[in-house]
# Entry
Amino acid sequence: MARRVTLRHLSLARVTLASDPHRVFFVVPGHDGPHVAAWPSGNRVRLIAAVALAALVALVVVARLLV
# Structure
C-alpha cells in the first residue's frame, strides 16, 4: 500500500478499496505493526452461495431425471 497511518485509539479498522470492491480488509494492531486480514465482501459471499445453490439444484434435477 502507498499510504501509512498511525492509529492511537482504534483497535480495528474495516477498509474497502474502490479498486478491489469484492474484498473487505480488516486491520488490527500487532506486535510488529498492523496485521491485515482480507475477507470476501457480503455481495461476493451471496454470489458464491447462489452459485453453489444453483449447482446443487442442477445436480438434484439431473439425478431425478436419471433415476
About this structure: The two ends are 55 Å apart (CA to CA). The chain has a mean pLDDT of 88.
